[in-house]
Amino acid sequence: MKYVLILFACCTVLSCQTSNKNSVPNKVGYNGALKNFMHDADVSAKVDLDDFKNIPNFYALGALENLKGEIQIFNSEPFITSVEGNSLKFDKTFTKKASLLVYASVKEWDSILIPKNIKSYEHLESYIEKVADEKGINTNEPFPFLLEGLINSFDWHVINWRDGDTIHSHKKHKSVGMRGSMNNRNVEMLGFYSNAHQTIFTHSNTNAYSC
């Protein structure tokens, strides 16, 4: 199994906190928080994806309004997945709203071959931080990364939260919805690393949010 870690070389960070949709503040943007789901059972929309449709080189991960699907945006191209009956539904527009969204605009990336001795998620997190530090990236601030490579196997999950369910847990979030697996396929996975955003856009036991 060969993976390539791709860290940003030139990152334009974004926000939709002002009326100017193309504004550029000084850190990775996000709207919503995991703790809204877990502590307050608040799965309402926090941002409209339409706010970002004209931003170039835009990358984002998140959850749809009411936790009715997953958001992935690669280089300004949306891949929105949701569950309809017993099937997956795919949407490639910016017409949806998000209860959680993490994002940045990345013009250029640096590629690094991941060593074969990186065999666990924990080791990968440490390696990402190490390489970012070596590349001069401020690891005290959140930053995006990509993983590319041929996978032997991969389990996927698309959340489809039950209307009216106010009892949230990480275990339930992983079990509710549709799941499956894929084998021997080239994939591209987006992630955001941060050692300061646990329960915001990373879980309490991890420093990376990825999909």
Please describe the topology of this protein.
Layout: E1 2-12, E2 29-31, H1 34-40, E3 47-48, E4 58-64, E5 70-74, E6 77-84, E7 87-91, E8 97-113, H2 121-134, E9 143-159, H3 170-175, E10 177-193, E11 208-210
Antiparallel strand pairs: 1-8, 1-9, 2-8, 3-8, 4-5, 4-8, 5-6, 6-7, 9-10, 10-11
Description of the structure:
This protein has 211 residues and is mainly beta. The protein has one domain (2-210). Helices cover 13% and strands 45% of the residues. The protein contains 3 helices and 11 strands. Strands 1, 2, 3, 4, 5, 6, 7, 8, 9, 10 and 11 form an 11-stranded antiparallel beta sheet that branches. The chain is globular and about 45 Å long. The relative contact order is 0.23. The model is unreliable at 11-26 (pLDDT under 50).
Primary descriptors:
211 residues, mainly beta, eleven-stranded antiparallel sheet, 3 helices, 13% helix, globular
In short:
This protein is mainly beta. It has three helices and eleven strands, in the order ββαββββββαβαββ.
Low-confidence stretches: 11-26
Please count the helical segments.
3
Helix-strand string: EEHEEEEEEHEHEE
Terminal Cα separation, in Å? 18 Å
Mean pLDDT: 83
Structural class, from helix and strand content? mainly beta
Largest sheet entry: 11 strands, antiparallel
Number of spatially distinct domains: 1
Shape: globular
Number of strands: 11
Helix content: 10-25%
- Percent of residues in beta strands: over 45%
Report the C-alpha radius of gyration, rounded.
Answer: 17 Å
